[in-house]
User: What shape does this take?
Amino acid sequence: MKLFKRILVLLTVVPLMFTTACKKESAPRIEQAPREEELVLRFGQAPYGDTLDMQISTGSLSASIADEVTESLLRFDDDNNEEVVLLTDFPTISEDGTAYSFELKPGVYFTNGTELHASDVKFTFERMFTPSTGAKSYSYFNMIVGAKEMLAGEAAELAGFEIIDDYHFIITLEYPYAPFIENLGTSYANILPEDACTAAGSSWGIDANLVGTGPYMIERNDPNTVCVLVKNPNYHGGEVKLDRIEVYFYADTTTKLLAYENDDIDVCDLSAAMLSQYMDAFANEITSYHPLGTCFLSLNLQNDVLANVNVRKAISAAINREEIVQYVLNGAGIPACTYLNPAIPGHDETYGVYEYSIDNAKALLAEAGYPDGVTISGGMVRQSEAPIAEAVQGYLAQAGVNLVFDVVDNATWNAERAGGALPFTFVTWNALYADADFQMYNYFYSTYSAGKSVNYNNAEFDALMDEARIVIDATKRTELYQAADRILSHDDMVCVPLYYPQSQFLAKPYVTDMKVGNLIYHLWNVGIDAQAKASY
Amino acid sequence: MKQYLIKRVLLAAGILFAISIITFFVLNIIPGDPVALMLGDNADPQAIETVRHNLGMDKPLVQQYLEWITGFMTGNMGESYFQHKPVSSMLVTSFGYTARLAAVSYAVALALGLSIGIIAALNRGNAIDHTLMTLAVAGISAPSFWVAIVLQIFIGLRFKAIPISGLGKPAAYLLPCLSLGMRYAASIARITRTSMLEVMNQDFIRTARAKGLSRRRTVMVHMFRNALIPIITVVGTDLTTLFAGSMLTESVFNIPGMGALLVDNITKRDIPVVQGGVMVVAMLCVLIYLAVDLLYAAVDPNIRLGGDR
Assistant: This one.
């Protein structure tokens, strides 16, 4: 009995000793309790990856943090309308539509104490076009005169950027480009301080190496655990509402949601897959919104089977989009009726949801020369799209189309797709703002479509896209994009649009003005109602 | 003994060399170009070439390997392609998390497993024995990630003072270490019980009791010490799987350890980080097995290593 007691003591004490002996380390758990008067937002999201440098990263997870620290000349508000940030007003445009004149707001300082000057803007764009930077998003700006020469390593300076004085500069384009002002409002064009960025070199954007003019500055950042942002006391846009924002990184979605339930965090996103589990108990804390994207089955037109338009149309006819949205997405989406998202000018509302008809699909297959069905193999999908891919696979089997694919990691998927020979895959393609050029050009224009394993080459479609890029008149542009979309997703059925996604987030009742601008969280307006929090 | 040790060290070096070659070449031939990932879909060929050159990826594979292995042996594991940080510093940070998780988990496992095994052996055949062994079977059968989620929901959410993720506070160790440790505790309990029962029937135990030694001294000194050999074998195997296999537990509890580091960097083909990580885990496994072999001799003087028994 004595021995039994000793063992029991051992059982209790030893683990306790080990546990308490462990020294405290920084980790994705809440830090020390904030002072009572501090207003702190605790935001949970998936790890953003490697960098907060938005010339190198294109991810919304990076942008949600980077946009609090660095700012672009213009930006999109919560309703996707563009507003000035670092400028006194929108730029004036020359009559031929190629020269943009800007005036910077005076007295805007980076958080390292240097004032924002036109030279910083010039540095930002020159860095973007310098090959060793490895900028991903330069193609949204490479119509600036001299950009192509820099990208080819033939020039060290951007010829199309003229500094008038510290606050005035002119950007000249090779040709009129209608969405240029919109592109300047994206995170990709966040303005960087020349001295700090040059000093940081390749470490810029890594950990806490990020300085900007934004409402918050990085106090510390471990990309695996937590990024702590503190208020910029000299913010040019006025008093910042919060003292701190703590962004906690959760690689596992379930753990993130449990942390929300456990009151460890105040805000986090909620995926469609988890929606059904939370929609009843947390109905008052869920906010839904529709990003400017489309989920579609991307097809390779050089594939022997998929080259036949009737096969592509048969695939479309065999898919019940309403059921996919209802059962696979728990209602978090809108069944597609065309490629362009409903919020993007050019979306044609006269189209109804693509008709679901197995009979029609079989007839189209027979017409294409496959009366007994056909196997399309070699596809690859990422884990994120696997549930949708499996649902589509099930529908197509009913029509006699045997869709064979592997679920692969991101690197393999990217390499195969960039090689141009991937037969099919599933993609959700989001525009950063409501413009069809952003959603269509970089995917389906002949120059780019090979790199997406689409290999679409239609002179009529290309001509419409080219014309729409230089037309300033909004109505005319809309008509051009409607025509282009009709060719793309109805006449040629180059891709099979499935649904327009819905996203949602959870926020505690004491969090105020929590908004998302098209997948990127706008934390600069968010506040905490201290009284409501105290009584929560 | 010395000869045996030299032989084992040489064998370990050979194994590590083979692992380094396999890892390097496998990582370099599987699909997925890190530069393409870095620069995105619309990458300019000039930019791709520049970045490949800067990273030394345009050199012949053999030359890349020789440069890497030479650096590794001098303590320079290179720099992450994506984060531009020394691989060694990334590994130290992640390994710190995994080592702490593994150490506390295994301490829990040892405390629970040895205690349960001894109690079960001493109560052979009665209700206590049956209950403890049923729990041990359940512990071995339940996947640790499932136990982790159950603990998070039924303990973490119920008693909100216990953190359900990270390792930021001492109390945060409780759930991950319980979920990871339980499985190992169960296997230790079973082997301890079996081993103790075997020793219990030996003549020297009866002699010890007949000579008037106390029950506690007989159990802890004579029985337990002689039952240790198979337990040490299990501990050695467990420790290697614990370091290399705590990935799911780390994932559920959001602990940025070696598992998370390796998976994340494999998916984006950050080759220097993966190579460094694999080598560190491999070295650890080899060292643990070596230590286990040496422990045999320390625990049981009858064992003479190197075949000179």
